[in-house]
Amino acid sequence: MKSKTSNPDSLLDELLAKGGRPLKLRNLRAIHELCRRQYEAGLRDISISTIGKLCERDGLLTARGLYNEGMVDYKVLILAWSDFAGPAAPKPPKQLASEDYLSRIDDPAIRAIVQGVIVQRNKLKAQLNTLKAATTIVVDRRPTLQGSNSSVSTLFTDSERKALLKAVSPDFLESQGWREANFGEVVNSKGRTVFDPGFATAVRKMLGH
């Protein structure tokens, strides 16, 4: 779709020389001026979509209209301007808030001091983030026997172990009109909590069951 003519002005003359309806010739001139204004303003985004929006803004034609099959001459003219303007300038890197703040400090000595503070802050923040990512703190509040590897279950006699196990056994709970619910809580026949969630499971864990 690109024209062999490198200069958009020459291409416009060629397109106008082909003749056509007065409306088309008027629109060609208008689109040519839109592209020229973009170029002279230093705006290198001279694409079909951008010029289409400008055409719609100025009431020339709809933005989608440029994509119709019969709009080839318009698109050729826009693409010639796009080639003539060259690629858009790369966007400058986004300036950090701290850099923007530093740029507004006129005194070089104060600027250097503030910059050092910012560098130190960023260093400490990076170290803190590293610690947050790498550190895992485990809190184990279960009672243990000092100087021994014995489990909690060894604290109980056989009779005490049997009594505790019986207290959370299904048969015993049923005989009391109770039952163990989903989270280890013990509830009565009306669904009211007798022992809080985790009671039955905690007893079994203590005894190694």
TrEMBL record:
Keyword Hydrolase among UniProt keywords: yes
Gene Ontology MF annotations: hydrolase activity
Keyword field contains Hydrolase: yes
InterPro entries with a match to the protein in the record: GmtX-like
Domain of life the protein comes from: Bacteria
Keywords noted in UniProt: Hydrolase
Matching NCBIfam families: recomb_assoc
Protein name, as recorded: Alpha/beta hydrolase
Native organism: Janthinobacterium svalbardensis
